[in-house]
Amino acid sequence: MKIVMQRVLKASVTVDNTTIATINRGLLVFLGAFAEDTEIMAEQLVDKMSKLRIFPDANGKSNLSALDVNAEVLVVSQFTLCADTKKGNRPSFAMAAPPDVANALYEHFVELCRHKFAKVQTGIFAADMKVSLINDGPYTVVLEA
Hints:
This protein is of the alpha/beta class and 145 residues long. It is built from 2 helices and 8 strands; from the N terminus they run βββαβββαββ. The chain starts with a strand and ends with a strand.
């Protein structure tokens, strides 16, 4: 399982010209699930994500976690994070979890986030989404389980 999380001032997801999710200060999280991933991996990532000190304190130092600042979270499924680009010029997604497995892991990840954070929004699994954000920093971190 791989996540790319970005510290944002604001982020939103639009599907079919309708905004379906929006957050203010917090984390935009893109989630890719591999075929061998488990719910335990999701739990480890949510725990790490919630405690990672990437928000500035009063002195501007990255000493505060998402929990410390009551961050809002927007989770977007993104199977393209599972791309294998070692051969040729076309990414292979053979290592990505099948859609039913990936969706179950995505939903589990979101549920775990809802237990930790006050506001959690989501995209729509497998939808054609338009994601907008105002990156804060920019500050982007990749986590893998």
